[in-house]
Design a protein that fits this description.
This protein is 47% helix and 15% strand. The chain is of the alpha+beta class. It folds into 2 domains: 258 residues, no CATH class; 300 residues, Thrombin, subunit H (Beta Barrel), CATH 2.40.10.
């Protein structure tokens, strides 16, 4: 899927077509249209202080930075001085699924550690604490500007980056610490920041709620509001001595008063890649080519997993498939909302106005004009070139998807590369081949049929590629025939394929037919992408020269802080209140029935004694969140934790391209609900007391 994601940043239509839009499409851009995902190296002290009426000085930002954490794919926070961590359940559910012991099913039943001795180590879980955020752009840009174009510039960047990492790691290293320095390109590569993290590698599970309450409503409620999800989990960081780490920088618990409508909140986390700084023509490629292609791929694979789960009797395989399906669904469901935004003339008009103002500012400055005036035209030319490969994009860009691709075709692809690629690359191809994950037979059959159908749909019934893929049969029958004849279903067969011993294998014969064109496609896209990245960096430099950090960079899975206020909104002719309560859980359950996506786990089916159903459960704000902000602490001006970000509403899905706080909302679990559930439902008083007191 990496290739399609890269292409999603590409463009299609010439800029002249943008200018030909009717005047009614024109719309003035707003101050924050490109977002409020502020970086810590350019902390918005004056803006926060003026807007929200408190002293947002360096000490405040330092406290916020040190208490927040990054975990794989998500965000989290320290909530006691003894290493207690809180995040979303969906951020750890894949790991929790692997932690069930014989006779357990932790996804369905949940987990509560009665004592610290019962806190269970989580495989492959890490937590990174941001010690420093440093702008190293001057060093990196100076090195790159002194180098010749092409590979020399890339090498100069790598050398400067490595030097910055070594310098900062030495500066912040202390005995016993695991220090990691990550260098991130911002503003499309125009600026470079180094983030110094202290990494914790012994993370243990303390509390995990049941999937049924963490994900109440399933896909139906995903990216919607009102919501009724108790999406939280509690972990603890341990040191090399096997004892809980000391974490003096932690957020105080805000479970007594919480927040109310109109209160300011600050969401601290690591939002993933957005495309707010792209050009209009790139957005039109998203709308017309990349997103529809991705939508069809994800929808078809999700349907295949659902069908597999309905027919399978293997509970372990069904649970593994469920985790994969939930991840794919989380990528698929936002696409219609993004497309709606990109098809909205008002939104595209605002983005066009942003681009127009930047171009005018460049032209008004002789120095900038000499450097940057031709960038947009060249970018458009590149996208016209890129668009010539749209057929291959639809047919082959997902062939090696590790999340929803056919294991047979993945193995055949890497085995073919190992045979025919450069000798110095063969070992790397064999490593990739060895990482291909086998799938249950029925699921593999479904994925393989869909991959063969991708080729046939893209090239048409009479093309040589379609004949090679289907042999005149339907995709389903062609998949059956290939699986019956291929030797790539076991390790020995894969090794033989990589050694060139399976030339007659049907999967390898398909690769023989298509791979020359696939490699040409990939090489052409790589060539275009390299120049496109360089152009994007130049446009980013121009933008930073004009606006500086007044416009934050695109999301990059690097640490950010976003501001907003707790506020409802109008939708579907009615008004969404800023808070929901536990009453809504039981209303949804009774309305839809127990055998539905609103089915409740056993301990929740009857309202537990002592649980106040009027307790706020979820709430919303205007803060600028995105994927990767899951688990982000939402804090008040005095840095009390009041919520955990876990979702956005449908109206906020266009945040990939533009930030519209007038209708988009981020959705959070209220800490008052977490505290109530821990005490009244899970009887985890020791954890609740630690949250409230901030210590064990």
């Amino acid at each position: 899927m990496r290739l399609l994601r890269a292409l999603c940043a590409a463009a299609l239509l010439p800029a002249a077509l943008v200018a030909q839009r009717p005047a009614s499409d024109a719309a003035p851009s707003g101050r924050f249209d490109l977002g409020r995902m502020w970086t810590f190296e350019y902390a918005p002290s004056e803006y926060f202080s003026t807007t929200y009426g408190f002293k947002a000085d360096s000490a405040w930002f330092n406290r916020a930075r040190l208490a927040a954490l990054r975990i794989p794919g998500c965000s989290a926070a320290f909530v006691s001085k003894d290493g207690l961590i809180i995040t979303n359940h969906h951020c750890v559910r894949g790991t929790v699924n692997t932690m069930s012991r014989k006779g357990e099913n932790l996804l369905d039943s949940g987990f509560v550690a009665p004592t610290t001795a019962d806190e269970r180590r989580m495989p492959n879980m890490i937590a990174d604490q941001l010690l420093a955020a440093v702008d190293v752009s001057d060093d990196v840009n100076k090195a790159m500007d002194a180098a010749a174009e092409g590979p020399a510039r890339d090498e100069a960047r790598r050398t400067a980056t490595t030097a910055a990492q070594a310098r900062l790691k030495a500066q912040y290293a202390t005995p016993g610490d695991s220090i990691m320095v990550q260098v991130v390109a911002l503003y499309n590569g125009a600026r470079t920041s180094a983030y110094v993290f202290r990494r914790y590698t012994d993370i243990r599970l303390v509390v995990a709620v049941e999937l049924g309450v963490a994900n109440l409503g399933g896909d139906w409620d995903n990216f919607t509001y009102p919501r009724y999800a108790l999406d939280f989990a509690v972990m603890r960081a341990y040191g090399a001595d096997g004892k809980p780490v000391s974490s003096p920088a932690h957020f105080a618990w805000g479970g007594v008063d919480g927040v109310k409508a109109g209160d300011a909140v600050f969401v601290i986390g690591n939002p993933g890649a957005t495309r707010r700084l792209t050009t209009i023509s790139q957005l039109e490629f998203q709308r017309d080519v990349a997103l529809p292609t991705q939508e069809r791929f994800l929808a078809s694979r999700i349907a295949a997993i659902k069908a597999f789960r309905e027919g399978s009797k293997d509970d372990d395989a069904k649970r593994d498939a469920l985790v994969t399906m939930l991840s794919l669904s989380n990528s698929w469901k936002p696409i219609p909302g993004r497309l709606d935004g990109l098809r909205d003339p008002a939104i595209m008009g605002r983005r066009a106005d942003i681009e127009k103002k930047l171009a005018e500012a460049i032209d008004a400055n002789p120095r900038l004009k000499a450097l940057y005036s031709k960038l947009f035209a060249r970018m458009t030319e590149l996208q016209v070139q890129r668009n010539k490969s749209n057929t291959a994009l639809a047919a082959f860009s997902q062939m090696t998807s590790t999340s929803a691709g056919s294991a047979t075709l993945q193995s055949a692809y890497w085995a073919w590369r190992a045979q025919h690629g450069p000798a110095d690359s063969a070992a790397g191809f064999r490593q990739r081949l060895g990482r291909v994950r086998a799938l249950p037979r029925d699921l593999e059959r479904r994925f393989l049929a869909l991959a063969l159908d991708d080729i046939a749909r893209s090239y048409g019934a009479n093309h040589a590629f379609t004949r090679a893929a289907l042999g005149g049969a339907t995709p389903e029958k062609a998949a059956d025939a290939m699986l019956a004849a291929t030797a790539l279903g076991d390790t020995a067969g894969v090794r033989r394929a990589a050694a060139g011993e399976l030339a007659a294998d049907p999967a390898m014969k398909l690769m023989d037919a298509v791979m020359p064109s696939v490699l040409t496609f990939e090489a052409e896209q790589a060539r275009i992408a390299a120049e496109e990245n360089a152009l994007s960096a130049q446009i980013g430099r121009a933008r930073f020269d004009v606006y500086g950090p007044m416009i934050p960079p695109d999301g990059s899975s690097s640490p950010r802080i976003a501001d907003g206020v707790v506020q409802g909104y109008e939708y579907n002719g009615t008004l969404a209140a800023p808070f929901t309560t536990f009453y809504g859980v039981y209303d949804r359950n009774r309305s839809h029935g127990q055998a539905s996506d609103w089915e409740l786990p056993n301990r929740w089916r009857t309202p537990p004694v002592g649980l106040d159903l009027g307790t706020p459960l979820n709430f919303i704000s205007t803060a600028d969140s995105y994927g990767g902000n899951s688990g982000s602490p939402a804090v008040t001006k005095d840095l009390r934790l009041v919520g955990l970000n876990f979702d956005r509403n449908i109206n906020a899905l266009v945040r990939d391209y533009i930030y519209l706080p007038e209708r988009g909302r981020n959705v959070m679990v209220d800490v008052r609900a977490i505290q109530a559930a821990l005490t009244a439902v899970y009887h985890a008083e020791r954890v609740a007391k630690e949250l409230v007191s901030g210590k064990m």
